Amino acid sequence: MSTPNAAEVNAAEVLEQEFLLIRAKILEVAAKLDRLDRAGGAAGSVQLRQIQAGLDILQESEANRAERVQLAFSLDYEDGWREKYLGKET
Amino acid sequence: MYYIDPHIHMVSRVTDDYENLARMGCVAVSEPAFWAGFDRGSVDGFRDYFRQLTQFEQKRAGWSNIQHWTWLCINAKEAEDVQLSRDVIAMIPEFLDQPGVLGIGEIGLNKNTRNEAIVFLEHLDLAAKTDELILIHTPHLEDKYKGTRMILDMLCDDQRLDHHRVLVDHVEEHTIGRVLEAGFWAGMTLYPTSKCTPERACDMVEMYGPERLMVNSAGDWGPSRPIAVPDFIMAMRKRGHAESLIRKIVYENPLEFFGQSRNFVFTPPEINEAAEA
What is the total count of domains within chain A? Predict the structure, then answer.
């Protein structure tokens, strides 16, 4: 079975289906950031930097935004972890 | 549509949940061994848990005409006690020939520590020596990417393992590609706040195709939704995907993967219907 083609539904239809949901989620994020500000803000925090990195990705035109947002909120992989933990070369 | 939930912790749920699952079309569940919310204190505590998984839970599922399979291990959250973990791993073979036991799981990493990696490797060794299927838990949130890559490193280092006999669960956008490319099966977990939503699961089906891919609820004692798989079915239908595609992911794929276990027995619901006719 081949990869199901999302393009069978055209972009206008997808936008029609998703517009209100996207709007609602952006609004939700805006309201939560406002709430954070009212509480004094969190300038310099790691979490806020990650949130900002996630928001920056949303403004880019490249694909795979979801994957890149996930990576913005992820710890880095360490190449030498086996040697450090298990005492063996990779 | 009939479906199978390939990862759900029914021990943590009430009998009414089995009834609701059955009403939604669930015909079978697979239940990996899990953390109880507190660390169990002894091997005998695990032995009793495995008796519950292999004996009573099948009976309770059967009250709702749901078939129940299970997997055995000590969870990564309890792996910091390496000696207890080793004692539990040594005890697991007592249960491996019980009906409904599909393999070793859900093993994996939680906070990606050295002790977790040691216990994970010892579980892999048991699975390789006993020729069991493997079901893998990948870590949560910020630990998932690093932990999944560590898990894939360890799996790929072990030349005894057949990648088609390993299911890597809780994949998301940043981990699914590596899992599938390495030849493993992948499971998408539908959770209310963390992990994946039905809509994002549909996106991943559209991007990666349905081969070696499943969806599960991972319903447990925390915030979770046992009937999340029907949510995925609905989301796929709303996008206009074919019933045959949906059925492959929620029914045929679990049967194909689980069918590799020597303990796998399944009575398809169609046969039940034919017997009644």
Answer: 2
CA dist., res. B216 & res. B220, Å (int): 12
Contact A77 B146 (CB under 8 A): yes
- Bridge partners, B105 (sequence order): B135
Structure-token pair, residue B157: 């280092």
In order of A42, B95, B189, the CA distances from B23 in angstroms are 47, 31, 21
Q: By the CB < 8 Å criterion, does B193 face chain A?
A: no
Does residue A5 sit at the B interface (CB-CB below 8 Å)? yes
* pLDDT tens for each residue of A34-78: 999 999 999 999 999 999 999 999 999 999 999 999 999 999 999
CB-based contact B92:B84 (threshold 8 Å): no
Greatest alpha-carbon pair distance for chain B in Å reads: 57
What is the four-CA torsion angle of B55, B57, B60, B61, rounded to 10 degrees?
A: -120
Quickly count: other Cβ atoms within 10 Å of residue A20's Cβ: 9
- Pairwise CA distance, residues B251 & B200, whole Å: 19
- Find the residue in A nearest to B242 (Cα): A4
Q: Which CATH number fits domain B3-276: 1.10.1740.10, 3.40.190.10, 3.40.50.720, 3.20.20.140?
A: 3.20.20.140
